[in-house]
Amino acid sequence: EWQAVQNGTGHTVYSGTVDLTTTQSGSSYNLTDGARGGHKTYNLNRGTSGTGTLFSGSDDVWGNGSPSNLESAAADAHYGAALTWDYYKNVHGRSGIRGDGVGAYSRVHYGNNYVNAFWSDSCFCMTYGDGSGNANPLTSIDVAAHEMTHGLTSNTAGLNYSGESGGLNEATSDIFGATVEFYANNSSDVGDYLIGEEIDINGDGTPLRYMDKPSKDGASKDSWYSGIGSIDVHYSSGPANHFFYLLSEGSGTKTINGVTYNSPTSDGLPVTGIGRAKAEKIWFRALTTKFTSTTNYAGARTGTLAATGELYGTDSAEYKAVQDAWAGINVGT
Ligand code: ASN
Ligand code: ZN
Ligand code: CA
């Protein structure tokens, strides 16, 4: 049975009122995105197993903006998945996580007061907790794109989730978490180099991670050092996040969309940014054609330089910026 793509409306927790792509089935509507590989959004209703129940309803309006309405976080998750799909398709020419046009699915309302979200290769799905007090669902755009990108990494480079490759895996999710948020560019979400600034995971309004100076979170590293592979992958990601910021925006102080960044370099030398549009092309090409499961920081330098040479030439300003940005986090000096 052929079913037309429907244009629903989501009243999200974090992104205001957004368009959602849905499906009509008989007299009801459900959160199946027929324009993006059939991506579906399910309700775990605070349980922790199974697929849950596909969100459906008699009208095509989802949530009311409050986390206490269980459709609100569903609207965020459905929207974040759609944006991430559109970003990879329109910016990088990739159709879906596996590049085969097939959607994944999302599960929201996992557990009680569960302060995390995760991707799973085994279900080919993303899962979101509701956060502390079930009041801060982990469904912001950058978190959704972060989790979905774990699926992409798993199906491309396959970076092992431990040691330096694990840090690069985490950084890849933060990098594209940020670039998808910039891509969204709606009035509630103009884009930044902060991760999780909307979900209030620290309870004081601070973000989970900072790409301009990762050590601002109190645990992440700004630069590579011998032995960084033995710390948590969410902290060894810091230097690669910092590399991406430096390559995009350059070192020093800069205000973007109202957020002021101040990015140092480990060698004290300046880096001239080439812009996010080029930096994201370089990281994507390296991830999908150069990195392997065991790529470490030195290998990431080699891989991004190879990708940059192919995209812009080895005599280019872009190539020099990639060299300088790696030097700025103490890789390849
Ligand atoms: N939210 C976390 C992440 O995506 C879950 C985990 O630690 N794997 O990294
Ligand atoms: Zn992650
Ligand atoms: Ca963000």
UniProtKB/TrEMBL annotation:
It comes from the Bacteria. It is found in: Secreted. Belongs to the peptidase M4 family. Extracellular zinc metalloprotease. This is Neutral metalloproteinase. It comes from Streptomyces marokkonensis. The chain holds residues 226 to 558 of 681 of the full protein.
